[in-house]
Amino acid sequence: MRGVHVHSSGVSADVRQSVAEAVIAAVGDRQGDWEVSISDDPANNAWDVEVLGPNQLYWSRRFSGEDRDSSVISAAVNDAITTNPKVA
User: Fold this and answer.
1) Which is the most buried residue in 19, 44, 54, 62, by most CB within 10 A?
2) Is the pLDDT of residue 1 over 60?
3) pTM for the whole thing?
4) pLDDT (tens digit, 9 = 90+) per residue, 40-65?
């Protein structure tokens, strides 16, 4: 069973949807529950993204400036997931 739950604070619905789709694509068909948090830090032109996954996986990163792009976020999350030994 798999579920991806996205929570956001201070980001628009469009941003939330775009980042959610990017993370869902990165998670792919991996099993387990996934929690994603997206927070906006307008003073620093940044988004903070946290991912909690199965087997106590925790990953976070700040995306600022031009990195605030769903394809950049998707690639970063995909790399974090595929290189983490906690994810089957």
Assistant:
1) 19
2) no
3) 0.83
4) 999 999 999 999 988 888 999 999 99
Return the half-sphere exposure (C-beta side, CA atoms, 13 A cut-off) of residue 30.
21
Domains of the chain plus CATH, in order, are 2-82 (3.30.160.100)
pLDDT tier at 83, thresholds 50, 70, 90: confident
- Residue carrying the six token digits 């998670």: 27
Contact assessment for residue 33 and residue 51, using Cβ atoms and an 8 Å cutoff? no
Residues 6+ apart with CB under 8 A from 64: 44, 45, 46, 47
* Cα 45 from Cα 30, distance rounded (Å): 32
